[in-house]
Amino acid sequence: MPLYVHKYGGTSVGSIERIRHISAQIKVAKEAGDNIIVVVSAMVGETNRLVSLCNSFELNDDLAMREQDAVLASGEQAAAGLTTLALAEIGVRARSFTGLQAGIITDSTHGKARIVDIDTSPLRTALGAGDVPVVAGFQGATASGSIATLGRGGSDTTAVALAAAMAADECRIFTDVDGIYTTDPRICDKARLLPSITLEEMLEMASLGSKVLQTRAVEFAGKYRVPLRVLSSMHANSCGTLVHYKENIMEQPIVTGIAFNRDEAKITLIGVPDRPGIARCILRAVADVNINVDMIVQNIGSDGYTDFSFTVHRSDYETAMRVMQHTATDISAGSVVGNANIVKVSVVGIGMKSHTGVASTMFQALAEKDINIQMISTSEVKISTVIDEQYLETAVRVLHDAFELDKGVHEDK
Amino acid sequence: MPLYVHKYGGTSVGSIERIRHISAQIKVAKEAGDNIIVVVSAMVGETNRLVSLCNSFELNDDLAMREQDAVLASGEQAAAGLTTLALAEIGVRARSFTGLQAGIITDSTHGKARIVDIDTSPLRTALGAGDVPVVAGFQGATASGSIATLGRGGSDTTAVALAAAMAADECRIFTDVDGIYTTDPRICDKARLLPSITLEEMLEMASLGSKVLQTRAVEFAGKYRVPLRVLSSMHANSCGTLVHYKENIMEQPIVTGIAFNRDEAKITLIGVPDRPGIARCILRAVADVNINVDMIVQNIGSDGYTDFSFTVHRSDYETAMRVMQHTATDISAGSVVGNANIVKVSVVGIGMKSHTGVASTMFQALAEKDINIQMISTSEVKISTVIDEQYLETAVRVLHDAFELDKGVHEDK
């Protein structure tokens, strides 16, 4: 009997009507003979409401993070119970689980906890009894029994982790979009749905701001080779986009999509003494306050000094700036400048590995629209640029055209 | 070091401002050298919101009750986390606990679970570390780890049970009223605050609809002789009403208060064959659907038939009527009639034990206002009458006058 993990986001459980809708879908799958594990997010708006209550208190130490987690996790707990009720109403035997009850054990980094182990026996028992387990996403419990959340979008991680631990046949992420597009259709009306995408591309798309899937969930899927499908909870017959692990590059288009991220901010330390260990010193200071650094650029200095730039999530900007003021003093850097009005636009494609000229096509397309590139960062499967946020839409459209993404190279073969 | 359990209801944690207010009170108590365990209800309105979501699904089997509990318990969990954050903000080390985390073990009667055991080690550990434990009220976990709620007002029960298990010096129930009055001040402006009340009287007042304390919490307190104080969370210097366990009847007034209950409904089986086991048969049918029966009246039949009446909570009225239609057929009773427009008005006083004439004073006062008495039920410390709901206010006022409750007999001595 095949086993599927179905994950439904906040919009999909956003009202009693929507909960009934997805429950009917689950019933169809169950009656077709599949075993289903359901993972749900909190009802849309609920997490924001709870975060806003927590933010009334100006605290961010470890104890406060523990308490915020207890507050936030309640949203998914309620959604799991309600979904279970909806299933029961249509005759599907189901049973809700909090993260703790589902055996999801995390480290104690409250607010951004990592799953360290899953005791699958509670879910196996439920499946054995013919029940559909409905698991509250986004949460687990530390070894000492405190509730810990996995960070924003953590319900995807819950779903993928359960799919890996239970050796599920597929992890299906149901969302309010049809799947992964070449770029955001709201910005570029030529955007095209991708029937499949490689894990590496998906990872870049996710980390670059294509918000359909959380980066960490994609990483987790890749680590355990969990077949991952993104599809719409509204259109029952949509197959969405399958994230696969084949690497037949010959069949791949050069560029798969244009990703972007609005929520970036840039920080530059000017006049940094150019000696070994400086980069580590700067990055450790940021890591110590639990901020993820994204792009990093350092130019080789000619006069014993260098400029060091990096980007962070915009919500971490002020904290990172504060930390850097201290670090600048510590390492005798000249000054710190920041810019929270930048965005990152990237071209992504596994085909880049075997093709040259992608960068020059990209930079030429941007130059033709007079868009200044402030930072560049490349990997085997993507090229990212930082630009002023006012050029975001223009850049996405011109790049989508430049790489002819509306044409569906992959499907034509 | 004295140990106090502080319980705060939904209004007391109804907003961030209110949560800050009670946190400041807790800080004062803590700094005075007391050990404090805090129990909180969900923010006012939250439980109703969650109940309403659950009620979208027409289910009331055991599995559905389990899920409803998971949904409802999330409200107290969030309130406990927020209260802990508020304490941390003003420098009070605190730690939130769900019912499960606090070691509160219940039976599996979801929705109306009873506490069967408390593992005090988690709270003892927290107190030992100097932390203020903040426990989510209204909930525990079954032996198999399912979340179970204790029914409406269950946070009082949580507080009293923790006070008993931890051998606390006092259980303080903070509410939005100043304490226990001779009757509801909103109905009778001569109502007077009682500085103390016996457990038996409090039990009758609570069970008779004086909503300050849940009956079960009072019973629990009595069983373990937990000193219980009801006081206002708004007025810091109010001492409220102490529930005590002395029984020096000579010092007691004859009648302590007038209680009433709006939420009653009456069901009568007419023409019941008068044979042994009939009452048991009727009451078991009601108990089987988990409905509590309050007053029971049966007249001895002269012609082999009798009429059998009982009252239930108004919210159980329709279910009870449905069940009784079947039972009437089973036991060959003539018919079933019901009335959901009745209320119960009672005089309560431990002094009744040694005084006669209370009943006649009561019935005369009601008769003078032409109020028809539909049912009568008495105990050692109370006399209850069922009357038409339109006479509620009149009855309360006339009885308050008849027993001169504004005069404070107790305090005059």
From TrEMBL, chains A, B:
Q: Which residues cross the membrane?
A: none
Q: Which CDD domains match?
A: AAK_AK-DapG-like, ACT_AK-LysC-DapG-like_2, ACT_AKii-LysC-BS-like_1
What InterPro entries does the annotation carry? AceGlu_kinase-like_sf, ACT-like_dom_sf, ACT_Aspartokinase, ACT_dom, Asp/Glu/Uridylate_kinase, Asp_kin_monofn, Asp_kinase, Aspartate_kinase_CS
One Gene Ontology molecular-function label: aspartate kinase activity
**Record field: catalytic activity:** L-aspartate + ATP = 4-phospho-L-aspartate + ADP
Pinpoint the ACT domain residues: 267-341, 347-413
Return the PROSITE patterns for the record.
ACT, ASPARTOKINASE
Q: Please state the pathway this protein functions in, per its UniProt record.
A: Amino-acid biosynthesis; L-lysine biosynthesis via DAP pathway; (S)-tetrahydrodipicolinate from L-aspartate: step 1/4; Amino-acid biosynthesis; L-threonine biosynthesis; L-threonine from L-aspartate: step 1/5; Amino-acid biosynthesis; L-methionine biosynthesis via de novo pathway; L-homoserine from L-aspartate: step 1/3
UniProt enzyme class: transferase
Query: Which EC numbers does the record give?
Result: 2.7.2.4
Annotated keywords? Amino-acid biosynthesis, ATP-binding, Kinase, Lysine biosynthesis, Nucleotide-binding, Transferase
Q: Which family does it belong to?
A: Belongs to the aspartokinase family.
Annotated protein name in UniProt: Aspartokinase
Classification lineage: Bacteria, Pseudomonadati, Pseudomonadota, Gammaproteobacteria, Candidatus Tethybacterales
